[in-house]
Amino acid sequence: MRRLSGSLFILLAASSAAFAQAKQDEPEKVHIRMHKRIAPSVVFVQGGGQQGSGVCVDKDGYILTSPTACGSASDTVTVLAPGSKQYTGKVIGRNNDKELVVVKIDATLPAIEFADSDQAKLGQISYVFGDSYGSIQNDDQVAISLGVVSGIYEISKKQRGAFYTGKVLETSAAVNPNQDGGPLVNADGKLLGIVTLNYEDSKFTGIAIPGNVLKDEVLQMIDQHKKPVVAKVEPKGAGWLGATTEEVEDVSGLKIKKVAKGGPAEKAGLKVGDVIVKVDVKWVLTSEGFGDAMSKFEAGASVKLRIERDGKEQDVTVVLGKRTEY
Amino acid sequence: MILGLAVMASTAAAQTDPVEKLQKKVEAAGKKISDAFVFIPSGSAFLISADGYFLTNHHVGGTMTAGTNVSLNDGRSFRAEIVCTDAVGDVCLFKIKDAKDLPFLEFGDSDALEVGQYVLAVGNPLGLAMKTPDKKIWPTVSLGVVSAMHRNQDQYSDCIQTDAAVNPGNSGGPLCTLDGKFVGINGRIATRYFNRVNSGVGYAISSKQIQRFLPQMMEGGIGKKISHGQVNGFTFDREPAQGAGAKVRSVDASSTAGKAGFQAGDVILQVEEYKVFSVKRFYGIVGNWPMDSEITVKVQREGKEVALKVRLDKSSSVDILGQRTDPTKPKGAGYLGVTWAGDGSSKIQGVVEGSPAEGAGLLKGDLVVKVDGAKVTGAAGVRERIWAKKPGDKMKLTIQRDGKDQEIEVTLGKNE
Amino acid sequence: MKNLISTLAILAAAALPAFAQTKDDDRKILRAFESKWEKVVEKAQSVVVTIRVERDDTREDKANKVNNPQVDGGVFKKPPDRVVYVCADDKVEETASGTCSKCGGDLKKVVRGMCTGTILEPDGVIGTSYFNLKGKLTKITVTTADGKEHDGKLLGYNGGADFAVIKIDAKNLPTLPMADGGKLVTGMNVVVLGRAPDGKGLTLNPGILSAPQRNMGFAWQTDAHTNYGNVGGPLVDLDGRLVGVTCKIEAKSSGSVGQNSGISFAVAPDQLAKIMPDLKLGKSTQNTAKPFMGIQADVNATDVDGVKLADVIKGGGAERAGLKAGDVILEFDGVPTKIFDDLRLMIEKKSVGDQFKVKVRRGEEELDLTGTLGERPAE
Description:
The complex is a heterotrimer of chains A (326), B (416) and C (379).
Chain A: H1 2-24, H2 27-38, E1 42-47, E2 50-58, E3 62-65, H3 67-70, E4 76-81, E5 85-95, E6 100-104, E7 125-130, H4 135-139, E8 143-155, E9 166-171, E10 183-185, E11 191-196, E12 206-210, H5 211-226, E13 243-247, E14 254-259, H6 264-268, E15 275-279, E16 282-283, H7 287-294, E17 302-309, E18 312-319
Antiparallel strand pairs in A: 1-2, 1-4, 2-3, 3-6, 4-5, 5-6, 7-8, 7-10, 8-9, 9-12, 10-11, 11-12, 13-14, 14-15, 15-16, 15-17, 17-18
Chain B: H1 2-13, H2 18-35, E1 37-40, E2 43-47, E3 53-56, H3 58-61, E4 68-72, E5 77-86, E6 91-96, E7 118-123, E8 140-153, E9 156-162, E10 174-176, E11 182-189, E12 202-206, H4 207-218, E13 229-230, E14 234-236, E15 246-251, H5 256-260, E16 267-271, E17 274-275, H6 279-286, E18 294-301, E19 304-311, E20 313-314, E21 334-335, E22 338-340, E23 348-351, H7 356-360, E24 367-371, E25 374-375, H8 379-387, E26 394-401, E27 404-411, E28 413-414
Antiparallel strand pairs in B: 1-2, 1-4, 2-3, 3-6, 4-5, 5-6, 7-8, 7-10, 8-9, 9-12, 10-11, 11-12, 13-20, 14-15, 15-16, 16-17, 16-18, 18-19, 21-28, 22-23, 24-25, 24-26, 26-27
Chain C: H1 2-19, H2 23-44, E1 48-55, H3 62-67, E2 82-87, E3 93-94, E4 107-121, E5 125-128, E6 137-143, E7 149-158, E8 163-168, E9 189-195, E10 202-214, E11 219-222, E12 234-237, E13 242-247, E14 264-267, H4 269-280, E15 291-292, E16 295-297, E17 307-312, H5 317-321, E18 328-332, E19 335-336, H6 340-349, E20 355-362, E21 365-372, E22 374-375
Antiparallel strand pairs in C: 1-4, 1-6, 2-3, 2-4, 4-5, 5-8, 6-7, 7-8, 9-10, 9-12, 10-11, 11-14, 12-13, 13-14, 15-22, 16-17, 17-18, 18-19, 18-20, 20-21
């Protein structure tokens, strides 16, 4: 019995190791699997006399795309999702200078997360997905092209009807007409950037606007859309932070101007100069957004605030009090 | 116990570098494909049999009616002639005269390809290959992935899209998986702003399509030509189908579609094993079968699925060199004098009084199975062969009558 | 029995993860690729240099006019050169002609270009593509990876290989080990490195070796992208060894390689070793002679089943063979020539001094003529 179990052990060990080996031995299949993961999130868009691609960044049907793909002033956009499902989408947010348009469709789609594009390095895998010469529109095929991040630099000229200038991620993956507005994806399957067609005619090199340029604004737009803006007036009984904040130029967040003596903010350790960037799960950029976010919490509630202090980020939990200052 | 653990440990340690592994595969496949590569003027080609059959595009070799000289990568030269060409599908079959033991590529299954899979394109872009001092000729090898499949690009109605570098001159060369089997013929690229260079989009005719045509092509087709099929008699709804299928708006009762049993309101769901999600996809699938083929189409009718068999008419599309393939009878063509059963088959329905057919002894009910020794599968095929001849030409028909095969020779007449 | 069951249970538990392909397994495979390319950047970035040139050349560049209608006529401008206006001080640039707004001096039109080069020897020998250095250069400035600027001098070039050598005054510059030319194989992974378009940082384009002995035996062909920005930089293998210096970018992009077409070239290691000694001594070669038939094709002719000749060049091989303007070439060396490209490719495959045979239609007659190919005159 011992001998049998011993040889059985060897057999199973060898075969499981062989299976593991066989799996690892399939570099060919890796891009196939990535395509299966990402393609369901990629769509064809059309509007304002333009056509192009887009990608779902929130599963409740929020599509990120570009004005070069769906128009620079359009209110509605036709979206074609995998399976040839056609929707009429509504533009819920737009920043043409960043080539950023957010479209809402009445459907759920798998979403793709933002990567930290500041971590992008030369040689990192970067895929381009999208409608390549009508591949989604006509053939229900999300086209994939394989490449690496081939350059990280600044562009300063607006060409080919593009709006964006600034830092770009260049890719060696093939980029073609109708792929603008579509996603540049990294090896983690996350969104590195959005493809723009602002390149030199004769170079045909693909470039994308880095995700970090777009992320905050996009998530903000989606958030705002999900929860309608609440009146600035604080409802009675709402929780009190005990700090005055202000929007500052070049600062993404709300800077604490004053901390009320003995108030909840002071008790939690918040200081003048701290920049509040997140309230609970919501990133905050504007006074309106901050007020809106805070108004959800009653007196006595615990709120996690992410702040930036001396160049470092940290989380601070504040127990909101009842307003005593009037 | 210990031995088992040792096996596991050593296998784990022996995990080789995936980059190295992939490179070795690419190098080996590149060499294998290059050995079967054929250098043909202004394009590329590749051997598919040891006795010298090779494939290229029609737009590369289709007009070389007087034959051509070709070379292999070991520097040997041969004389080759067209066996049959497909002007719509853009595929041309050649044979090298008196050859044997030549290296060749096997057919891969293009339907089994997956988007994102590595593929190699081998060709002679810009005619760069020249004999090197060691008397060898080196084709260009480039690596990419399958970007999309089943793309309908007009004549390339069900083609493979790849980002492997393909340029003018690659036409006719093979697109292969990393095991060295070919899954397509590179024939077309998308170009931008009048720059005729690759921009990451190449289109290849699938090996599956070629396999459907190859048997007839190897027999020489009809006058070294072969035709594609289509289904006459439909009009379709042009509303977006939301992926549901191709909805039939109307059917001409006397047409092929009508005789096959299609009805207005039918939603076409599937052709053979391929799902149909739009009208364009339906045309794309049907577009890569030869004329006279019998295909099965599944439709949705009043909540139920119905399977219909239809025999394809001759396609009336524009071929790859811009010429419209003409489904009508050319002037001065030969005349036989029979009418055919309406189902598209080569069964004789009626014999015209005083015609060459009557004189030769053909009867109603005869099923024509061969014309001049070549197999035919439908009326359109027989018609084509008649039209390829002139009045006064002889034609040998093999017919099936009362369960037996018979050969009848007929001299074609003139049609007033 | 209990022993067996527990053993099997342990094995099953251990083997189970092996059967589930996870995102982590894929990540590991992709990471293996990424780390190779990242290591190449680490090893090779210090040999990539930026070359800035100034041109003072009033030849008209027809090729540029065709590709870029906005080009300033009357000045030879290799794409993507910029035309700037500089005063005698050289410290001020304006973008309109006239006098300098700051010092009142005359403004001179000057053409400036930026491209890539490769450090080949530690005492300041830089290799690049000859394409980068064409025309009358008045200034060459080489910026090394450490940011230092050096004045450069063009030592010599080989037009056929499209390779040139610049010398700067420096010592102990970093270089890459040469790859073993005998071990290079079609299908091998390689990487093209170059200067980023904004002059800072690098670009990296991966690919494979596509074919050996291209460009008259001088170059390896690769499908990694080369373009105006990175040509002249190094082609490197994944171990950081120098496989070649990229070359042969052409301004035309129809019927030739263009940019980023997947057809790229790099002067091979053994060829670099062969041609460098002469170049360092200042011995330059223009073009290695290209075969020339001496005909001008009528590209506007329609409805012709061959190559119609608009003209026959005086003193060329075609004239000597008896060809005349208006003739239609039906066959060249026995091969049908339906279009001009067919004929052109066959001529290019031959060498200067080779014999050729043509079948020609003149009016109603068909003629068989023979001749000898001459040399293509320098452009």
